[in-house]
């Protein structure tokens, strides 16, 4: 049996510029006691190689920063993404893989997780994966990047 078969459905709709929380803004990160072994802050928006290619193809390499061999989206001091202007993502159709996977993320201890602060999740009591399958491919790409598959 597929793990998602036993889960109830949850609906998600991105509220974009109408969102009061906005995932493109400052991010508090995960548990404060978790530290990246690569020295990457949880506020960084990692770019996969295909993300870099897409941004370069649309001549938006001005949004890319490089630190310690990793590529990231440029962010403001408070963590807001440089592509987030006037309540909208200027590169929405070419946004990074990690942004396309949001509000899902994978935790090695608890498995598939969702950001419950996201107001696009309509039922926080029954959050699960079956209604969010269109995010899986992007989430798997991010996971494979980090584990080096």
From TrEMBL:
This is Fe-S-cluster containining protein. It comes from Candidatus Kentrum sp. LFY.
């Amino acid at each position: 049996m597929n793990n998602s078969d036993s889960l109830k459905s949850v609906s998600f709709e991105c509220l974009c510029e109408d969102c009061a929380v906005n995932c493109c803004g400052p991010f508090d990160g995960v548990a404060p006691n978790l530290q990246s072994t690569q020295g990457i802050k949880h506020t960084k928006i990692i770019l996969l190689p295909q993300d870099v290619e897409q941004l370069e193809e649309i001549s938006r390499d001005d949004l890319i920063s490089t630190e310690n061999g990793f590529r990231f989206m440029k962010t403001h001091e408070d963590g807001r993404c440089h592509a987030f202007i006037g309540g909208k993502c200027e590169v929405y159709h070419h946004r990074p893989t990690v942004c396309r996977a949001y509000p899902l993320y994978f935790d090695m201890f608890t498995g598939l997780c969702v950001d419950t602060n996201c107001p696009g999740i309509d039922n926080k009591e029954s959050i699960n994966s079956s209604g969010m399958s269109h995010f899986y491919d992007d989430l798997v790409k991010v996971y494979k990047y980090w584990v080096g598959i």
